[in-house]
Amino acid sequence: MRVKVRLFAQLRDLAGAGDLDCQVEDANAVQGQDVWRAVVRDHPALASFTRAMSTAVNLEYARLDSPVRDGDEVAFLPPVSGG
Amino acid sequence: MSFALLSITAQPLDLAALVTAVSAEQARQARDAGTANAGGIASFLGLVRSPNQGRGVLHLEYEAYEPLAVRVFERIRDEIGAEWPGAVLALHHRIGRLTPGEVSVAIVVASQHRAAAFAGCRYAIERVKQIAPIWKREAFEGGDIWIEGAVATPDDEDARREALKLACV
Fold first, then answer.
1. Where are the domains of chain B?
2. Interface touch B152/A52, C-beta < 8 Å
3. Is there a contact between A59 and B104 if contact means CB atoms under 8 Å apart?
4. What residues contact B115, with CB distance under 8 A and at least 6 apart?
5. Is A63 helix (H, G, I), strand (E, B) or coil?
6. How far apart are the C-alpha atoms of A23 and A25, rounded to whole Å?
7. In order of start, what are the domains of chain A with their CATH numbers?
8. Would you say residue B65 has pLDDT above 90?
9. Which site among B146, B156, B160, B166 would you substitute to test the A interface, given the most A Cβ atoms closer than 10 Å to its Cβ?
């Protein structure tokens, strides 16, 4: 299945792109972490953020074990610094 | 379309416009609820600071995951409404390149009593820093770095209580 991945700030810089069209192997219950693993496989520099980021699925904050479906927008967010 | 109370914008922030908008919204809500008009309006402006941690700042480059950021602002508005009933929030955050002294965030809270107006402003900025998907890259004399704050976890009740504590001291 295909997932639209959005990366921001440091994650985008490290990956070299903010929008990725990510191919994830079809399985019964694909989760956010499966998408993250696919992103890290293509962009190993992102691995260090695994425990220091947030995930959002279709514009809702989500957990790494949240379900992801074909066509979803999955965003990975490094630590925030608004204000 | 009326002036949005919650917004991410590349335009310079206009505090007077926020005060006008929040005042009108509070009056509308108070009329509907049959309660008093605002007895107090408090505001907070966040500005680009230099030097920052010893670095002379040239500019900050702000970016946001805009649609999620607006949803987070709505969440902050709802949290404020639950904590201080009748309090009305306006919250605008800028994106793009800002130089020292420029306003990056503007917050206005109108309430029937001043305590909620002041507390709501402080609570809003603490929550923005905790959970809004906004980032800044600092260009300083000699380099540039991403500023890293909190890992955004909106359902973390400890963080929410910490923001509440800061707001109510």
1. 6-167
2. no
3. no
4. none
5. coil
6. 7
7. 2-77 (3.10.20.30)
8. yes
9. B146
